[in-house]
Every structure is written in structure tokens, then in C-alpha cells.
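Sample 1 of the test manifest.
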Amino acid sequence: MNVPLLLLIAVPFIGGLLVIFPGRFLKVLRWIFSLLTVLGTALLLVLNFTSASNKGFRLWHILGSAESPQFFTSPITLVIAAAFVFLCLIIILYSFGFFRKSEEADTEYYSLMLFMLGSAMGLLFTNDLVFIYIFWEIAAVASWRLIGFGRTQEKISIAARTLLINFFGSAFMLVGFALLASEFGSLNLGDMVGKPMPVLAGIFILCGVFAKSAVIPLYIWVPSAYAVSPTPVVALLAGMVENFGLIAFMKIFVETFALSGAWHLSLLWIALASSIVTGGVALVVKDYRRILGYSTVSQLAFVLAGFAISPALGMIGAILFMIAHGLGKATLLMGYGIVEREMGGRDIRHKGRLVANFPILFTGVIIATLSVIGLPPLLGFFAKLDVIFGILSSGRILIGAGFILASILTLLYMLRLFSSVFLMGKKPEPQMSQSVFLSILVLVISLSLFGASFAIKPLLVYIGAGG
Amino acid sequence: MRYLFQPMTLLILIPLVGALLAFLIRPARRYIAIAAALGTGYFALRIFLDGLSGTGTSPIHLPEVFGIANRLQADGLSGVILLLVSGFALLIFLYSFRFRGGPRDDWKFFTFALLTYGAANGALLASSVLLLYFFWGILLFTVYGLLFYGRGDVETAARKMFVLNGVADFLLLFGLLVFIIYTKQQGVEPGQLAYFPGMRRFALSDPLAITAFVCIAAAALTKAGAFPMHTWIPKAAESAPAETMAFIPASLDKLLGIYLFVRLCYSIFEIRSNLTVQLIFLTIGAVTVLAAVFMALVQKDAMRLLSYHAVSQVGYMILGIASGTVLGIAGGLFHMINNAIYKSALFLGAGAVKRQTGESDLEKLGGLARAMPVTFFSFLIAALAISGVPPLNGFVSKWLIYQSFVELGRTQPFFLIFLIAGAFGSVLTLASFLKLTHSLFLGRRPKALEGVHEVGFTKWFPPLLMALTCIAFGLFAFRLPLRYLISPALSASVIVPLGHFSPLAFAAIMLIIVSLGFLIYVVGGTYRPRPRKVFLGAEELTEEEMHFSGPHFYSSIKNIKIFFEFYRFAEGGSFDVFHYIQGLSNALGRTLKRLVDDSLNAFARFIRYFLDLVGKGFSLLHTGGLPFYLGWILLGILILILLLIRGGGGA
């Protein structure tokens, strides 16, 4: 049994349960406790990186051959996990500074955030359909509670809508899993490698993927969920939880089954439609959170496209894109969240010339903006380059051109958002609190996008792309 | 580590480190910038001389990406342009140098200008298209930052630049990725910008090749500021200071954009293999020349007027290079160098006037020749050079371009149209510079400008040096620039113009004619004007009323029917691609929101209501009354019995 891996998945859950107790005595303790839990998870992740024997293990036998491990690590999943843990660490730190009154973020909040992290770790390292489903639903329930945080009528109704759409997707996905199990006599993906994908099961599973990772037409929960939930929760949704669908997609569709050309082509067209539709809508909405929500949908479609090409051409690009987008979008949400916290209001037309008020924040946000647009020398550039190059290399010039159009839309709405909050406007706003601690967190995470691009070569070598 | 102290790496690193230092150690920012430009210039010169002597500098190998080899490597063309970039950077930093005082926020200028400088060097040294794009993309951000240094509405100008160039950058990305795929198909080393020894030029026949060519060329020409992607330049002229205008739109952007265009037309693809594509680009060139010069004619602001010329001159370069002949490409390249020289001189000269008077509105300026003699001299020479007056450099390069069309016109006469367009543009350029020079330096000096005097050394020296270069490059065109700059850049042995043209002889003849004229002027005694009183309706006119100010020289053109419409459109922003991009994308966004997003949301709401309705329907059945439930039970039993009877009957 691979103990570090088991602990890596178990520790966030145990932490999430135990955080209930210290918070009863002293409010600050629950924050410290959850921070320690994330740090512990990070440490365990490092152990997993360095441990020589990264062989998998089985937790309990359900269905399928006894050889295939249920949990195991691979360079790709470890790198994604590292990005997630880093993001979680920043978000927990951010939560502490962000909520003015400690009552705003009560014990349930920290507990659920840790559950989300745990389910991410579980989902990343498992290869068993049952466990995929379990972790998937833990995250769904946790995000349902967290989106409705504050519990006004509107928030509850939007949280319910989110849960309904996600549950609709995951119910179909479960049917798909059942079909796979009946077809192959196994619930372990390791037993199905290289087989052709049964069409019906594939479509059912895609429903879940599309609902979770916000692909057209099931993306509609995203913008409204972004509009109501607390900033750190939105950052975690954009940076981590919405990627769950794509991670499952990668495990099932890319790494396991052999897809026919029709699958590739239709997935690419769906991704393109998703990207352009939401990219266009992001240009005309006025609430910054909705802009970023539509933007997330638009960007996740790039990841889907990367996975949909073929494992050899697009997979590495898609993974880079997932990491770059997760970090960049979380930065933007946290960054603009600080502005909202200090000034109130979400309509970008009512902001102006904030560059002098938030110099540190400005630097962080501009780096993340450029990365999301996909400009060198940031990580987002390499990701976008890799994905579009993969699409073109597979001979689909038209779809590649479509994604170039989607990138141009990204540039337009990102610049519009950025300019109208920080640069436009007649006169500078009066001096206000700069939220230095929070701004530095935003800067740190955006600098990681800058730093990662210098380590791009070793990173690619590590995940096995070679370069 | 091994690669850190190589000339080519330093060419990129020195400006970048300089930018960091200029940002961190703000009191010393101006010295740091000059030092960085000097240091970088030294290495640029070494690379250039190595290229000239044929030894070449050894390339630096960078990590491979997607199987595409990346090197920092220089050949004749990039050597020349690197040298020019460094030269301009040094002169412009010198121009913006002050020992003390000055604007406190000029750290923005030095930081971003140094970053731009380093990234531009990187783009010029890149051996593969990916590496080129890497640096090219960095330029987008650094120029954006640079445009925030200035007065007035800096944000709009910067945003306009970002959108136009950003769109072009994504086109470039698409084009170069297609190019990589195309070169892979062709079985050559993929994605390399060809270097001349053993180069292979592709014909523009494959759709992939045409796509790659058109996209990359569009991006290159956008960088150079060609019509219709130029509109940020006049906007920036309103807010940005002269040094920014001289550095970016006047010199650096032209050098980079035309560099890429030459690479594309001369060393990668054979533009003459596809007449349609060639004609499209030639038309873009001709339209750029004419549209921009027409706009320049009626401008009332010195900086805006110059900025339209910065656009108009690109047209000549496009014409020359897209002609596809060695002569034309040499002419286009030479014109690019010349334009960078005199256009920078003009911007810096106008900037000096603006600095001394606080004005760039032509209505409020005039008569400064005596107050600012050195600036006037440099400005005049540069103005004559841009108008293509022989024997200055602008004439020689235009001459080469015209000749290439004469050569092409021998077999296909319709090419002569572009010659005519170019010549016509040249006339209009001269006309607009008559107006500008007159309005700035000649005529009557307004009362408000009595105390104006010449600028300091750092401000008059760079334009003067540029003006002298204009003369030297004109007089010794074939001996100096064409031999040492253009021929090595194109690896063409000698550039031989058609017919006989000797700049020196021409200059001698001109000198004799001008001296004769002057002699007649002095001897004939016409130099002393005889004042006469002028009356209008028995009212004596004051000198003020009779004064004809330069800015209105060509106002009458505006009132000609067709031109009137043209200007009305142009001033309303109808030619502004920026507005089209914004309008189109907004319309797309609104349509998609209505069609897709709103209907999906409506559908989700409908499902919600439907579920609610079903729930309500079921709740209606649960009244709580016993008779009601009994009724249901009876109904159920009845149905069961019926089913059983039918089932039994069947069996």
C-alpha cells in the first residue's frame, strides 16, 4: 500500500471533519487548522513527488480484475495536483484576510473548502469509476452549500439550480458508468484501455462532464453561480472544481478509450461553439463576475478541444491550459474581488482609474490578464500555443481559425474589463484601503504564471512531453 | 551560463536588465538608459561588422519546442536592422535626456522603451517563427505600457494600439502555425525563417502557403502601420510625447514590420508566383500612400500631420517589397531606413518646437526659423527628404522603387498604375510639408512666441545628425548605404539601377541652379519688398487680417465634392478598423447572448416551472380527505382487475 498517496487523499477529508472542533473554542483556530491541513497536504504531495515507489493500491475490490490499481500517481496528475494545492493554499490565506467579520466564514465554510480539496486529490489519483463518482458528488454537494453561502432567497435558488444541473449531469454519468460496467465487466478504467468507446455510454458520461466543466449547453449555471457566491469560493470553483469534468474526461476518453474520428470532430465543434458563444457574451455583460464566468466557460472549451484532438497532439497543451487558466482566472477573480470588497458594486462601468489606488493589485491583475489572453512570456501563452498548434496539426485548419477568433474575443473582453476597472475614467478615485495582504497574495499567484513559463521545459520533460 | 555573455544574448539582456534598473533606481534612470543603449549598440555593431566581413557570429541554441529548433542567429538583414534599432534607441534616449528636472514620470518612458528595445532585438535575432512570436508578443505589452507616458487621453490611444496589434498578433500566431505545418509537409526544417545560404523559396500555390503568407504579412504590415490598421498612430500622436512617436511608430515598428515582410517576400516565399496576392498587397501599399497623405494634407496639428506621414511612407515600402524584384526590395528596404531617419528627425524637431512653445497647433505657431535655426535646418532637410526631393535619400529609395515598376511594366503595363500612385503621393507629400514647414518656421511669428529660443544640445543634436545622414545617404547612396547596408542585407552582390543616375552630378547641377537663382534674386534687387497699403471697401486692412496662415493651405481640397465625402467619412471614424472590430464583436456578442444564452436560460427556467407544475399537480392529489384516497384505491383495483381479466382472456 502506498501510504503517502492514501494520506494525501485522506488528510484533507480528516482535516475537514476535525476543523469543527477547534472552531468551537477560538474562531481563529479553525483558520489555522485548515491552513495547517493544506500545508500538510502540500507536504504529502512533495513526498509523493519524491517517493521512489509510486505503485498504486486497491482500497476494496468491487468489480473487475484484481491487477489494476484503484489509486496511483502519474507525473501528469501530480503536476495538476500541485497546481490545485498551491491554489488552495492561496485561497485559504485569502479567505482569512477577505472576510471582515469572522462570522462570515464559519466552520462549515472551511470544512467544505477542505472537502473540495480532498475530492480533487481523490479524483486526480483514482482510476475507478465508483471513486470518480463519489469524489465528484462530494464536490457537487460542497459547492452547492458554498455557492449558497449567505443564504438569501436568491442565493439559495441559484445554488439549487447549480446542484440540479450538476446532478442531472452526474445522474446520466452514473448510467454511463453502469453501461461501461455491464459491457466490460469492470469498474476499473485500467481494464478498458484501448477498447472502442460504446457510443451510448460515452454520450451519457459526456452529460456529466459538460455539466461540471460548463460546456455548452449545460454551462448556464456558471455565470449566475459566480454572481452570488463569495469571492474565494468562486476562485476555487474556477481554478479547481470546474476542472473536475475535464479531468474525468481525460481519464476516461483520452487515457482509456480509443475514440473514432467522429468523436474527435464533434467534440471539437462543440468546444468551438462553447468557446465562441460565451466569449461573445462576455463582451456585452457588465457585471465583472459574469464576464469572468462566461470567460471561464470560453477558456475551458480550449482545454476540452485540447483533450479532444488526440492524446499525442493535444493532451499536454490541454493540461498546461487547465493549469494556466485555473491559476490565471482565480487570480483575476480574487483581484477584482478585492476591488469589489473595497468599493462595492460589480458594474464595470462605474469603476475607473483605480491603478493609483491599488498598485500591487494592478500588477498582479495585469499579469494574469495577459496570461489568460495568451501572451508571451506567460504560461497561458505556451498553453494556448500548444492547443491551437495541436488542432492545426491534426489537419483541422478551420477549427483552428475558430479558436483564433475565440482568442481574439478573449483579448477584447479581458482588455475591456481591465481598462474599465483600472484605467478609464475621468478622475482618480479617492484614496482607500489597499488591502495589501490580499493584493500580495494575488501578485504571488500571478507571478507563478510568470515563473512557470521559465520552467516550462523541465515541466514538459517531467510530464513526458519532451518538448 | 555559457550563453549568458555572448553578444546576441547580451543584445537582449542588457536592455531588459537596464529596464529593471531604471524602474528600481529611478534617480539614475536616464543615465541607465543611455548606458544600456551604448552597451547594446556596441554589440549590435560587432554583430553587424561580423556579418559584413563574412565571418558571422556563432548562433546560440535555445531549447527546442514542438520539435522546432530555436536559435538566436543573425544574418545580413537582421544585422543591419539591429544596428539601426540601436542607433535610434541611442539618439532618442539622448533626446529625452535631461541632467535634472523634467517630468518625474518619465521612468515609464525609459523602462518601457528599454523593454521594447530588448524584445525587438530578440525578435530580430529569432531564427524560428515561434521564437519571433515570443518576442513579438512581448512587444505588444511593452508598447502598451510605453503609450501611457504622455498627457491627455493616453488610455484610449494605448487601448487602440493593443486591440489592433493584438488582433494582428493572433493572426500572426495562426499564420506561423500554418507555416510550421506547411514546412513540415514540404520536408524542410520546420518553422525556420530562412537564412540565405541554401535557402529555398516556396511558391504561393498551396492554400496552406497562401494562408500562412497572408496572415503573417497582415501582421507584419499592421506592425509597420499600414492602412487600414494604422488608426492608433494619429490617436497616439495627440497624447504621446515626440520621443515615443519617434521611437515606436516612426522607427522601431517600421523596422520590425518591414523586416518580417522582407523575410516573407524575399527569403521564404516567392511573392511573384501569385499575381492575385501580389496585386492585393500592392493595392494595400498604394492605398496606404494616398489615403494617409490625403489625411495629412488637412491636419491642423503638427504631431498628427506627421503621424499620417508615418503611415503614408509605409505604402512605398510595401510597394517596393511587394513588387518582388531585387531592385524593388532593395528600394523598399532602403526606403524603410531612410524613413526611419527622417521621420524620427521630423518628430523630434516638431517635439522640440512643442517643448519650447508648448504648442503643436499649427494655427498658433509660425516664424520660428530665426529663433530655432538648427532645428529649422534639420526639419527642412528631413522635410525635403521625405518629399523625395533629389539628391536627398528619400529620392533615391523612391527612385529604386519606381524603377522596379518600370521593369515590371515592360511586360505587364498595369504595374505602372502603382508607379503613378506613388509619384502622385510624393507630390502630395511635398505639398503637405510645404504647409507644415511654413506653418512652423516661416511666416509671421505670433506675439505669444516672442521669447522662444533654441533647444539645448541633447534636443537639437539627434535631429541634426539624422538630417546630415539624410544628405549623406542621398549624395553617396550607392557608395555607402546601398553597398554596406542593403546589399549585405539582401545578399545581393550589387544593386544596379536602370539608366544613369549620379546623385553627386545631380546635386552639382541643383547647386548651380539654386546659386543662379539666388544671384538673380540679389542682383535684380527683388529682395527688398516694397510695402503698399491694401484697401478693402475703403477700409485699410491690418497686417493681422491679411495674414494667411499655413494650416489652411489646402482647406479648399476638403470642399471638392468627392474629397468632401472622403474627409467626412474619415473624420467620422468610418475608416477606423478599431471601431469596426469593436462594433462587430459587440454585435456578435449581443446576437449570441440573445440567440443562445438567453434562450438556454429561458429553457432552464421552463424546466424549473415544469417541475414546479408537476409537483403542484401531485400535491393537488393529496387533499388529505379519506374519501378521495379511497376513490384512488378503488380506481387502482379496478384497473388491476381489468388488466388481469384481459391477461387471463389472452391466455
